[in-house]
Amino acid sequence: MSIEIRLENFSGPLDLLLHLIKSNEMDIYDIRIVEITEQYLNIIEQMKRLDLDIAGEFLLMAATLVHIKSRMLLPMSDEISDDEGEDPREELIKRLLEYQRYKEVSELFQQLPRLDRDVFTGYISAAELFPTEPDEDDILAAEVYQLASAFHRLLKDRPVEIFHEVVQETLSVSDYIERILDSLLHCRRKGLRDFFHQRSSRAELVVTFLAMLELVRMRMVNVEQVEPFSEVWLSLAVSEHELNTAQAQEALSDYG
Amino acid sequence: MDKLKQLVEACIFAAETPLTLDRLCSILEAPRGDVRSALEALHQDYADEQRGFYLAEIADGYQFRTPAELAPFLRKLKKERATKFSRAAMETLAIIAYRQPITRAEIEYLRGVDSGGVMKTLLDKNLLRLLGKKDVPGRPLMYGTSRHFLELFGLRSLNDLPTLKEFSALDPELTDAQPLPPDDHDDR
Amino acid sequence: MDKLKQLVEACIFAAETPLTLDRLCSILEAPRGDVRSALEALHQDYADEQRGFYLAEIADGYQFRTPAELAPFLRKLKKERATKFSRAAMETLAIIAYRQPITRAEIEYLRGVDSGGVMKTLLDKNLLRLLGKKDVPGRPLMYGTSRHFLELFGLRSLNDLPTLKEFSALDPELTDAQPLPPDDHDDR
Questions:
Q1: Set of chain C residues whose Cβ sits within 8 Å of the Cβ of B10
Q2: What is the pLDDT of residue B187?
Q3: Residue that finishes a domain, picked among B74, B107, B128
Q4: Whole domain around residue B53: which residue ranges?
Q5: How many domains, in total, are found in chain C?
Q6: Nearest to A86 by CA among A72, A100, A66
Q7: Residue C188 counted as domain residue
């Protein structure tokens, strides 16, 4: 087989197999499995020698081919032919035929007149038609994917998977509220991530987080952020003096 | 040109996406039959002459589009490049278009390769939509093509997809494009 | 209709802004005089009939416009147009959908910004509902998504929302985006 076969030119092992079958002028329904397997393995071998990464799917197909080959070579005893009488190639042939259909169709798709490549539309924007009116009562258009994607993006940047955790009683939210207040008394502003130490247990992280939520709710702590998805900064919203007032103490005493 | 025809023409022209008959009727507060006749008359007008654009039927709606043969000139007007598709992306899109609703495992069985990355790209380009979950153990997500897919390829509906070549019968069960052997591919 | 006229019509139609004579000449690689005659002929065509749009001369350029008297219908067209969610709205809605019941403070903590305005919009659009008050000091209101939310997104129930695991499985790069870094996740 020609040296210039490169796996990355094939969209997968089925694509490569189809190529081999075609260049050997074989009939898909009657693949000469010994020949094909040998050529396929050669290509994989060459890639290995060139130290190229071979995707697992290509290796899996190699194993499949070898398996089929060995079954083809086995003498068919009458006993076996009852259960395994079918052609060992059948499953592969099915997959190749099916894959070939979609491969052909996808080549057709590439050629279909495509919007903004081959055909164009015109339209008039609302702003052009009615420059002075802001649009208000718009109907919303939405797809589930966009929704899930928004949430995923958020968690990716700020992984907080803890609202539904059950907090163990041994850790008290009020302790952590005090700890947070304490550390904020020492430095005016502290990044959110600094409160979550690598060594903390999951439960500690949860309690720390709940304590923060409470402080925010009680308006004792300000939460700031320069721009979406950047670091979140915590700072005291009240003076040291106010911290000691009865009201604050009362609010805090609800915990513990 | 009668008033309704003029209105239909203006609406289709001003809209950003193909307008369906239903929407035209509701915007114009006109009976279905009348709007339909206006559309037919318009269609005729544009077909009779070689115009710079024609009335196309896309995604169950109507939109003015330029004929493909004028593309070489029109491309010069446009700054941004059209969406390109890798072979893997097009292959995946084709499978989903014909086999929807389909799960990721089924797609990967058909393609023989992991397709998560390609599917994510297609989802991000708004060409796919999620079609709920399949009623089998594990409840995997099912995927289908979006309305935008029809618009991009200028299709009236999924029925307009080019017909798949049937493969000659090796086995009668091959020819019906029924649910795939979904999960049985892990074990070989 | 001659070829040049057809091309001129298509260009003006597809262009996003008014096209000047110079620009048309350079795109079509045609002599000024010819393009000018094509424009005049087009102008005449549109003036002769009551069409849904006409060839207007704006800022030294040419553009198709709809006649002013059709504005009331076009206003309806644009009003009824489905708009996309803003990023902020989609993000907030996503948090509520996945984390309900949830309080405003919790949402704002996750988003890192005040979300009162966005939540009001979502409530006005009937996408949220109140789920009572949380049993913590201050008894803040808890929010969840409404039935209309399910309809809008074509979901049978909240169980039909893709799980985050399924979601990150699509994108190998994102699989690290898992919960917090607790002690027990070093085992990879």
A1: 52-53, 66-67, 70, 73-74
A2: 32
A3: B74
A4: 2-74
A5: 2
A6: A72
A7: no
